[in-house]
Amino acid sequence: MAFRKIGRTDASYNTLKKGYNLRWPSNGNPGADYVYICSTADDILAAANDALKNNCRITVRSGGHCYEGFVSNAQATPNSLPNGIGTTPQGLLPNQKPLAIIDVGLYTGSNYDPQGKLRSPYSTNSTTYKFRAAVGNQNWDNYIALYKSSGKTIPGGSCYSVGLGGHISGGGYGLLSRLHGLTVDWLSGVDILVPSSNGRQLIPKHVNAKSTGDDALLFIACKGGGGGNFGIITNYYFADLPDAPQQAYWLTLSFPWEHWTSVGKERFGQFLQAYWKWFSDHDDQWYNSDPSLSNGGLYTLMHLSHISTGPITISIQYVGGDGTITQENSAPLVDFVNTMTEAAGTIPEITDKVSTPIQPKVPNSKAGMPLSDPLGNATLYDWFALTQTVNTIGANQNGKYKSVYQIGNFNDTAINALWNNLSVPNPLLTQSLVQIDSYGGAINAFYKGTENTTSVFQRSSILKWQYQTYWSISNEEECQAEEIANAQIAWIRKIYSETFADQGGKPYPNDTWQGCYINYPDNDMKYTDYTFSEIDPKWLELHYGDRVDALIATKNAIDPNNVFYHQMSIPLTKPNSTKCLGKKQ
Fold first, then answer.
1. Which of 209, 279, 104 is nearest to 450 (CA)?
2. Residue 237, CB half-sphere, CA atoms under 13 Å: how many?
3. What secondary structure, in 3-state letters, does 350-373 show?
4. Per-residue confidence at 85, pLDDT binned at 50, 70, 90?
5. Using one digit for the tens of pLDDT, what is the confidence trace for 318-340?
6. Is the predicted pLDDT of residue 135 greater than 90, yes or no?
7. Phi/psi at 581 (nearest 5 deg)?
8. What is the separation of C-alpha 65 from the centre of its chain, rounded to a whole number of angstroms?
């Protein structure tokens, strides 16, 4: 099947120019000129070269979940100026190229060879693999294929329709990462289409751990350097993968805001600090020969919901270190639940839902009852069935996100920011929260001492945050759309800036914070303030730490003509305090 090329007059254009965030293309932005729908690796190569031949800028879409307008917004320059800057009445920048989205979502499929003899058609060395996954696979399809064919899994995300293309290239973490590390810690090889020397077409190549020179740099860049920077990945290869667990506990606890407003900010802060402390104290026990101490299978999601959104909840998935569940190896689950209950100063309620738009209802026969016994109150699932149950993303609507990795405990500045911005009612903030996930464990220990084998520098963090706010615009609210969006964005910017007020409003790496996750991109991080008039010279370090020089060197070696660029792409030179014409977003 050849690629399908969709232009502005096509009946499906208005739908396919968008991904899974209805903010993009943003208001006033013309969006892509063409969308190429590709079903094979050959389609992807042909489509990209057709777009380049017609002088288009190309972006890549797998699952379509980009948090910013990197894929869908037409307005971008090789210097990655922000959305909307310097536009003409027609919406295009002077001399701006047309935009073509290369949609790889239909290129799906996988292979498993228990003998480990899979080989890339583009490989120039003798490396072979057990697993291949096409770039268009979505998380749930990939989990099904791995589980049914081999009983294996990847430690990836729980949102079912996220595509592997961007998920893995940005690092790939999920509910098994404290036990098995990041997905890129298992990645062994990549097929990728990269620009030719003159930048006028793409050519296929395969890179892996045996690659040398520039190809070795490229392989490392594909392991956490983010998507859309160097080329188009078409296949991922793995020499091996971890066994899928057999069973898992799931338990969600609810702590209503009525309790927190009665006990106050101090107790709220103690609750947060106890959460960090439990994982900090147990981080080096993520895998222990004593099953009562081994806690890598404990993964938690604390949802600090805005008071107008719902209660604070903690969702817990627990698997034993060997993938089974016994009373002995469940001791860490019991200890964690008891610790958090004591820290809260109240008995939480068991619930089968959480107050976020992306978390599912997970049945629990004791929902609505007070917690009495952590194991007896948890629901025991086959792991595969639980993974299917929690595999959701909610409705497609508008969203804005921010992130941070946390090394040290919650300080007073962070506690004050969370309390002051979550505990004040606001009728517009009915889908707003800060989600704080457990982190560390195998992620920090897996390749200790050899961190340069990936582009993920955050290997000391204990927790990982995702600030989220969502909103939909009904037909009746169209005239208020900008006002509604501005209120959401103002709130998330305020709570974020106040969290890091001690260091200029951002989590620059230090003893407490470890920067941001590139798969939760936030265009605000690129600029010194919200006027977007000056580029922050440290924005790359926020995301890549000590990997910045290597990634820039890779960009110069692989894509010196900057064929692949977007608002936060890897540049050819280190940023400085560049002034630019700004426009508020």
1. 209
2. 24
3. EECCCCCCCCCCCCCCCCCCECCC
4. very low
5. 999 999 999 999 999 999 999 99
6. yes
7. -65, 130
8. 9
Mean pLDDT value across the chain: 92
**What are the DSSP calls for 289-339, one per residue?**
SSTTT--TTEEEEEEEE-TTT--EEEEEEE--TTS---TTTTHHHHHHHHH
Angle at 147 between CA 146 and CA 153, to 5 degrees: 65
pLDDT at position 578 is 58
pLDDT at 125: 85
Helix axes 481-499, 412-422, angle to 10 degrees: 160
CA distance 287 to 37: 44
Query: Model's pTM, two decimal places?
Result: 0.95
How far is 493 from 491, CA to CA, in rounded Å?
5
What sign results for the dihedral spanned by CA atoms 100, 105, 111, 116? Answer: positive
Query: Residue 361 corresponds to which amino acid?
Result: K
What's the pLDDT score for residue 61?
97
- The answer, yes or no, to whether the previous bond of 25 is cis (omega within 30 of 0) is yes
The answer to whether 148 and 169 have CB atoms below 8 angstroms apart is no
pLDDT one-digit tens code per residue, 368-405 = 999 999 999 999 999 999 999 988 788 899 999 999 99
* Residue carrying structure tokens 């800028």: 57
Q: Is 349 helix (H, G, I), strand (E, B) or coil?
A: strand
Q: List the single range of 213-217, 372-376, 469-473 with lowest mean pLDDT.
A: 469-473
Residue 53, Ramachandran bin (φ over 0: left; ψ between -120 and 50: alpha; else beta): alpha
User: Which of 42-46, 89-93, 148-152, 289-293 is least confident?
Assistant: 89-93
Give dist(CA 109, CA 253) in Å, integer. Answer: 38
Q: Which residues pair with 57 in a beta bridge?
A: 99
- Angle between helix axes 265-282 and 331-344 (nearest 10 degrees) is 160
What is the reported pLDDT for 401? 97
Letter string b/e over residues 228-262, b meaning 16 or more CB atoms within 10 A of that residue's CB: bbbbbbbbbbbbebbebbebbbbbbbbbbbebbee
CA distance 341 to 358: 25
Region of residue 84 (left: phi > 0; alpha: psi -120 to 50; beta: else): left
Cβ neighbourhood burial of 483 (10 Å; 0-12, 13-18, 19+): exposed
Residue type for position 167? H
Whether residue 111 is predicted with pLDDT greater than 80 in this model: the reply is yes
What is the DSSP code string of 81-130? PPTTTT--TTSPPTTPPPEEEEE-TT---EEE-TT--B--TT-SS---BS
Task: Give residue 357's pLDDT.
Answer: 67
Taken in order 38, 121, 236, 574, the sign of the CA dihedral is negative
CA neighbor of 202 nearest in space, from 111, 110, 104, 131: 104
How far, in Å, CA of 168 to CA of 166, rounded? 6
Half-sphere exposure of 55 (CA within 13 A, CB side): 4
Instruction: Give CA separation, 172 vs 95, 128, 257, in Å.
Output: 36, 22, 33
